[in-house]
Amino acid sequence: MAGIKTPVRLYAALFLLLITFVPAAVSVFWTPYPLEDTSGGRLEGPSAVHLFGTDRLGRDLASYVMAGSRIAYSIGLSATLLAALLGITGGLLAAWLPPWADNAASSFLDVLIAFPTLLLAMLIGAAQGKSTGTAVVSIGIACSAVIARLTRILAKQIMAKPFFVSARTSGTGNLAITFIHILPNIWQVLSVNVAVLFGVSILAEASLSDLGLGVPPPNASLGRLMQEAQSTVLPGLVIVLIVTGVNLLADAVRDKWDTGGALGR
Question: Which fold has domain 6-261?
Answer without folding.
Answer: MetI-like fold (1.10.3720)
